[in-house]
Design brief:
The structure is a single chain. The strands form 2 sheets. A 4-stranded antiparallel beta sheet has the order 1-2-7-6, with no helix packed on it. A 3-stranded antiparallel beta sheet has the order 3-4-5, with no helix packed on it. By secondary structure, the protein is of the alpha+beta class. Strand 1 and strand 2 form a beta hairpin. Helices cover about 20% and strands about 30% of the residues. The longest helix has 16 residues. The chain folds into 2 domains: about 35 residues; about 120 residues, Immunoglobulin-like (Sandwich). It is elongated. The protein is built from 3 helices and 7 strands.
Length: about 160
């Protein structure tokens, strides 16, 4: 397990406490993170992502996809089999699972599909207009406005 000291990050940044806490959680859960079921995370567009989870043996009604604040929780629960089967080899796990993904701010689940043993969860980042970057016009005060104009004009003449 790796140990990182993030205290310099706290001292030199303002408002990034959540980011540093997220890094701490990632490194703390690195060893304890379950590996079942396997998954892929891909970027499908500039602000769109897809999480694909291998859920062989699970029907859509056996799966649950839930977004709670900034977390995505995918879980699966197989119903108990009524008939007893005799397996010679059992390589498909089909065991209950719960997989959690931490989502960034303004990332929303846009849909989920189940096909060919894969669960695909589509995500999109939707930044509100109020939080998008905007250009701020710089206004000069009345007294310095004339001086600035003359300085610029003098520079052009030279």
């Amino acid at each position: 397990m790796r140990n990182f000291d993030l205290s310099p990050l706290y001292r030199s940044t303002v408002g990034f406490d959540q980011f540093a806490d997220l890094l701490n959680r990632v490194f703390a859960n690195e060893v304890s993170q379950p590996s079942y079921p396997p998954f892929n995370i891909e970027k499908t567009a500039e602000d769109a992502y897809r999480i694909s989870v291998a859920v062989a043996g699970f029907a859509p009604e056996d799966l649950s996809v839930e977004q709670r604040e900034n977390a995505l929780v995918i879980s699966g629960q197989k119903p108990r089999e009524e008939e007893a089967r005799s397996y010679l080899h059992r390589g498909i796990a089909e065991r209950a699972f719960e997989r959690r993904f931490q989502l960034a701010d303004h990332v929303k689940v846009t849909g989920a599909t189940h096909e060919h043993g894969m669960l695909h969860v589509d995500l999109a980042r939707e930044i509100p207009e109020a939080l998008k970057p905007r250009q701020i016009e710089i206004a000069a005060s009345g007294a310095s406005k004339g001086r600035t104009t003359r300085t610029i004009e003098a520079g052009k003449a030279a």
